[in-house]
Write a structure and sequence with these properties.
heterodimer, A: about 55 residues, mainly alpha, 2 helices, B: about 250 residues, 9 helices, about 0% strand, globular
Chain lengths: ~55, ~250
């Protein structure tokens, strides 16, 4: 398996890896944002509950 | 049939738990399917006679495009259910699906541009399919923005639902554009009558399609859980959740 030939994609490397690379980036960012949103939401719920208890 | 409570999971309380249990299955499935699909697409499928290695973009471009349209219809469907039956969870699902749909639309447009440049000589043309897919992205962004801009959640749900439903007309336009108009984008290679595509290419395409679908389901379920927590924050069951108490 000639890897440098594989990555070259017969000259189309920019287009092929540019497509898959962007898709991977989008997936990583989306997963990170969804996880972050959950974390923030839980934090806010705890703050709400704590604020209620202090009364 | 009659003894089953069909509406058990239409309540945010029960669906929250179900969604949480389903996410790992869909996430795991998508990882396996992506690995398999990419393997077949890059190491089993042969070089194309006309497009050389550039055609391999197809294995992300086509699934992303299909998902962009499919997710929109599912989103509009949930939005319509929320509007007709006044069910909060349906509207929450629509809201949960929108960002994933928008991102798949972006991936479709981006990979399409990168495929178009070497093949057609152009990053972009204003042909029917490309233009209507771009409009789909605007519809998704419009849905998200409209919903976010209205303070009252139920009013936001209803307004955004109208946008989603009316925008649905764009999906058949995208799909049939290559048949109805003279487009630069190629026509259907896979028809109900069959296809001339090499079998390994078909397998890679189908596997990647399933991978993207499983990923989309996992993302939507994950996102809707946060939406449920936020919108049901004043309820006792949310306050009692272990992840909130800790």
């Amino acid at each position: 398996m000639n890897w440098s030939e594989f990555f070259a994609m017969k000259g189309y490397a920019l287009y092929v890896w540019g497509s898959y690379g962007m898709a991977l980036l989008v997936f990583i960012v989306e997963i990170a944002l969804v996880r972050h949103k959950r974390k923030i939401t839980l934090q806010q719920l705890r703050l709400m509950r704590d604020a209620g208890v202090e009364e | 049939m009659l003894a089953i409570n069909w509406f058990k999971y239409s309540a945010p309380t029960t669906f929250y738990g179900l969604a949480g249990r389903l996410v790992p299955w869909f996430a795991g499935a998508s990882v396996i399917l992506f690995v398999a699909g990419l393997y077949i697409g890059f190491f089993v499928a042969p070089t194309d006679a006309v497009q050389s290695e550039a055609y391999r973009i197809m294995f992300i471009h086509v699934p992303a495009s299909i998902l962009s349209m499919f997710i929109y219809l599912v989103m509009a469907g949930y939005a319509a259910l929320g509007l007709i039956f006044n069910t909060r969870l349906s509207s929450m699902m629509a809201t949960a699906l929108a960002p994933t749909g928008a991102l798949f639309t972006f991936i479709a447009l981006w990979s399409g541009a990168l495929w178009g440049k070497p093949m057609w000589g152009a990053w972009w043309v204003w042909d029917a399919r490309l233009t209507s897919e771009l409009i789909l992205l605007f519809l998704y962004l419009g849905f998200i923005s409209l919903h976010a801009s209205i303070d009252d959640p139920r009013r936001a749900d209803r307004a955004a639902a109208l946008l989603a439903i009316v925008g649905s007309v764009n999906v058949p336009i995208i799909y049939f554009s290559v048949k109805w108009w003279n487009t630069l984008h190629q026509g259907a290679t896979i028809k109900f009558s069959g296809t001339s595509m090499h079998v390994a290419m078909q397998q890679a395409l189908f596997t990647m399609l399933l991978a993207c679908w499983a990923y989309a389901v996992a993302m939507a379920l994950l996102r809707v859980r946060s939406i449920i927590l936020e919108r049901e924050r004043t309820t006792q069951w949310v306050q009692d959740l272990p992840e909130v108490r800790s």
